[in-house]
Amino acid sequence: MRSIINIEVEKPIQINDDKPRVWIKACRTQDLKNSDLLDFDHEDKKILITRFDNKIYATDRICTHAYADLSTGFLNESEKTVTCPLHMSNFNLESGRPQNLPAEDPIRVYKVKVEDEWIWILIEK
Q1: pLDDT averaged over consecutive 10-residue blocks of the chain (125 residues)?
Q2: Domains in the chain, ordered, with CATH?
Q3: CB neighbours of 37 closer than 8 A, spacing ≥ 6?
């Protein structure tokens, strides 16, 4: 597990639900290798960033069942899931939905973009 803390932001944007969002500069693309589980903190948000098959995913980092850090869990590339290390719930990285119990609530999934070798995450302000 590697940690990155960064606070560079772009100007706020609006999406259909009227909640202001900002793009947060998370890390350089070279700092995130395939199959890495990287933890990223921004204000009160704890975010998991991962990459496989050259696609980058960003989700909430804390399991919705019990307070467990998903960045210390296990990545299943064929199923596109991350497994909670505490009670073994699997979360789909594209939808955030739990694939098995005990977790019942999804984790948040964030939009990601890459610009100039930097990974940016769109979060609510």
Answers
A1: 47 56 96 95 96 94 97 95 97 97 97 97 91
A2: 2-124 (2.102.10.10)
A3: 1, 48, 50, 70, 71, 72, 73, 75, 82
